[in-house]
Amino acid sequence: MLAIYLTVASQGRNMEYKVIQSTHQEFLSLQQEAASASEWDHFKKNTHTKIDPIIKDLEATASSDFPHLQHLLWASRDYLYPMLDNAQTERSRDQIKFEKHLEAAEQIINQNWIVKLLRS
Fold it and tell me: Could you tell me the superkingdom of the organism this chain comes from (predicted)?
């Protein structure tokens, strides 16, 4: 019963993280495949469609009260688009920074989730 609860509860939490993280996974696949310029252009357009509204929401909600959102904002607003431009064939400084902020957000989310679980 607990496993079912955890699965259901985790589905709706941190949608921003899930979208940004799935975009990162798609980016890594394209990078590894040495995708063509047209594939990168298509990916960039789709990324703007998905991520721009998230950035706007994060700019309104991210703060020191919600550090995971702050890291997601920095990753998406400050490093995602430069990463798409300069890390298509190999890792760049922007990719490293993006991944550090994404990882920090994930750690905070997981830590918060464990604390909430232990309190219930």
Answer: Bacteria
